[in-house]
Every structure is written in structure tokens, then in C-alpha cells.
Design brief:
With 398 residues, this protein is α/β, with parallel strands linked by helices. The chain has 12 helices and 15 strands. The chain has a domain of 256 residues: Alpha-Beta Barrel (TIM Barrel), CATH 3.20.20.140. The chain starts with 26 loop residues before the first strand and ends in an 8-residue tail after the last strand.
């Protein structure tokens, strides 16, 4: 049930780890010892050590004999590449970047919180973030607003968005179009067309927020180009990626074939329903990436954070290595800012997330208050960013 872009091996690799480059050093800056190292970029899943020197991965081996300035005891925990969340609203709060970092997120994209009118504010927060961060501009020039981003079609202002991108070409990495009826009414197709009119000259992707649209997904999918992103792929009917009989729409399959990415985009407001997710997964149509649709409110509720969303995928029967791939190496392929990240390969930037896997009786709630039981849940335990062990971490959620 692996997608063409799952990017992980089907077997579990033994820890015959490469230890090139810095491996001969007698002393490293940091060694994470004894954790279960999962690196889907190399099909790796085994207990071992990870050494960090000068901000980069120096060695990964069953046991590293060298000493270190600092030692992180990772026994009984998971050591994975730093988590990358491509659908957040981290710029909606000044402390958004640090809160995401505390959840193990070492790279994020703000997915259209602001449009052209206020994009400078979003970029200022992203620019000052401790981790790698970029923004997508909302096609609605006022950004996300209560009355609907583009309910007034005049707000889908092509020239305003283009001008904003030209001012901030280094930080704007895409265009966001929210297409639900409560956001843009009956003109979703025109809003998406305008978003493409903005994005195409700059070679940028468009991310669409789908679900409960006026137009069927079969029509909207025709406007999507290679490297565009469909978020909220588990949104239930009407106008989901499945038809009335529960089968994946042929137009959706065609979109994936031509290079469109499909993202989870969990959120809290109507974007995930467990029966829809199981129907889609059962057809072998898997997400390319996991993302949270992070907001300060959702994070405070303990629902919208990467470890919790990853755990909910485990409850749906997805293998752990696959869940890690969707949260690390796969999103690193989408945006250039994450080039070289999402991996523990020797020489890569040392962005590392340490997770605690707890076993017990847990409940995962979808956007319609349906509860799905699970017996495993992940919690952020420690984060290494650019080779620096960030301490103290905030307490694990109870």
C-alpha cells in the first residue's frame, strides 16, 4: 500500500551505517546514544548512535566510541530527522515558531494566513523563526478572514499578490487558495484560476484547501499543475477526492500522475473524518505528506501538533516508518528551503527530533467528534536544531 513517492524501502535496514567525513574525530559536539534510529531516506530502522559535529550529522552507527561535549540519552526513544510541517499558521502568533519547535518541528510553511495586504507581518515572523520557515501568500489579499478570504471575488487580486511576491521573492514559496463554500462561495474555480495566474510566472506551486466546495473536485483538479499541493485530502463528501461510491476520482488519479502532491492538513474544522480516511487509504491512495494545519488554539488543545497527528495515522494502521517518511523526507522534497533536510545522512544539517512512544489506551478525535482508539502515541522529547540540543524542552503532554 505504498505510494510512488513514499520514498522508503520495504525492508528494515541493518545498522551497517556509513561513518564518513567526521567519523574519525576523537570528539564530537553531541552524540545521541542508544535510540531507535528511523531514517526513511535510507530505509534505516535500528538501534544506534548519532553523532553531530559543526552543525551536521557526523556519524550514524550501532555504537560510536568517540566522546562528545554533550550526550543525549535516547535509549527507549525514537531518533528521527527533524519534523517538517508544510501546512501551518505559525505566523498567526508571535510565539508560533517556538511552539512548533517544542513539538519537534524543525521546518515549517505558513499556508496562507496572510494575503498581500498584511504579508509583511507574516514574513517578519517567519524570518525571525529559529528553524527554517517560509510562507505561502493567500490569493485573498486580506488573508484568512471571518467573512471568507475571497467571498468577495474582488479580494482575489492578482496584481496585488504578484507585487507582494516580487517584494518578498526569497520568503514567499507558494500561493494558497481556500476553496470551501464558506470561504469563497460559488466562485472556487475562478479563485483557483487566479491563484494559478499569480503563481505560474514565478514557478510557484498552488496549495488548495478542498472539501465542501461548490465545484466538484473532478473539475478543480483539472487546473492543478505539477508540484501543486492538495491539502485536506481526507475531507469527507460532498466534493471529496472520492465519488459517491467511495472510489478515487479519475481526475484525482490523473493529477497525482502528473506530479500533484497530496497532503493531510489535519486541522480541526471539517477536514478529517475517519471513515473517509479509511476509504481512501483502503483504495491505496496515500498522503505524500502529513501536516497539521497548526493554529495556536489547536496546539493548546493538544490536538494540532505533529506527534499527535502522526499518532493518529498509526491508529489507522499505517506503519511507523511510513508515518516518519510523510513527516520528514517527503515534505523536504516539496520546497527548496528544505533541500538536504529530512534525513540523517552523514553531512546533512543536524536537525533531529527525539520522540517518546507511549503505549496504552488513547483516543484520537476527527473533525466531526468521532473517536478512534489507538494503543500508541508519540510525544516530543527533545529537539536538535542545526546541531544544537535545545534545552530545556517543555514538559511532555500528559
Amino acid at each position: 500500500m505504498l505510494s510512488r513517492r513514499s520514498l522508503i524501502g520495504t525492508g528494515v535496514a541493518a545498522l551497517a551505517f556509513a561513518t564518513r567525513s567526521f567519523a574519525a574525530r576523537a570528539r564530537h559536539d553531541l552524540i545521541l546514544r542508544g535510540g531507535r534510529v528511523i531514517d526513511p531516506s535510507r530505509g534505516l530502522d535500528a538501534v544506534g548512535d548519532v553523532a553531530v559535529t559543526e552543525g551536521r550529522i557526523a556519524a550514524v552507527a550501532p555504537q560510536i566510541a568517540a566522546e562528545a561535549e554533550e550526550t543525549l540519552d535516547a535509549r527507549g526513544k525514537l531518533v528521527v530527522p527533524g519534523l517538517i510541517d508544510i501546512h501551518t499558521h505559525a505566523t498567526t502568533a508571535p510565539d508560533g515558531p517556538s511552539l512548533c519547535l517544542a513539538d519537534g518541528v524543525t521546518g515549517w510553511i505558513d499556508a496562507g494566513s496572510q494575503g498581500a495586504d498584511h504579508i509583511d507581518q507574516a514574513i517578519a515572523i517567519a524570518r525571525s523563526a529559529p528553524q527554517q520557515a517560509r510562507v505561502m501568500i493567500n490569493i485573498g489579499r486580506a488573508g484568512i478572514i471571518g467573512a471568507g478570504d475571497t467571498m468577495n471575488l474582488a479580494l482575489a487580486d492578482v496584481q496585488a499578490a504578484r507585487s507582494a511576491i516580487m517584494r518578498h521573492r526569497d520568503f514567499i514559496v507558494g500561493v494558497k487558495a481556500r476553496l470551501s463554500r464558506n470561504v469563497c462561495g460559488d466562485h472556487d474555480y475562478e479563485v483557483l484560476r487566479r491563484a494559478q495566474e499569480v503563481a505560474t510566472p514565478f514557478g510557484l506551486p498552488v496549495m488548495i484547501h478542498m472539501g465542501d466546495t461548490f465545484s466538484p473536485m473532478s473539475k478543480l483538479a483539472g487546473l492543478l499543475k505539477r508540484r501543486d499541493i492538495v491539502t485536506h485530502l481526507f475531507s469527507p463528501p460532498p466534493h471529496a477526492i472520492i465519488d459517491d461510491t467511495g472510489n478515487i476520482l479519475p481526475e484525482v488519479l490523473a493529477a497525482r500522475k502528473r506530479g500533484v502532491w497530496f497532503d493531510l492538513g489535519n486541522g480541526r474544522l471539517g477536514h478529517v473524518r475517519w471513515d473517509t480516511a479509511l476509504r481512501i487509504l483502503g483504495d491505496g491512495f496515500l498522503p505524500d505528506t502529513i501536516s497539521t494545519d497548526w493554529t495556536p488554539e489547536g496546539q493548546k488543545a493538544g490536538i494540532i501538533n505533529m506527534p499527535n497527528i502522526m499518532s493518529s495515522m498509526l491508529s489507522l494502521g499505517i506503519p511507523l516508518a511510513q508515518v516518519v517518511a510523510w513527516s520528514t523526507v517527503n515534505p523536504a522534497k516539496i520546497f527548496d528551503v528544505f533541500n538536504g533536510r529530512g534525513t540523517l545522512a552523514v553531512g546533512a544539517p543536524a536537525d533531529i527530533t527525539v520522540l517518546e512512544m507511549r503505549t496504552g489506551n488513547f483516543e484520537f478525535v476527527d473533525a466531526f467528534k468521532n473517536i478512534r482508539p489507538g494503543n500508541r502515541k508519540l510525544f516530543a522529547s527533545a529537539t536538535v536544531l542545526g546541531g544544537k540540543w535545545l534545552r530545556p524542552q517543555r514538559r511532555l503532554q500528559q
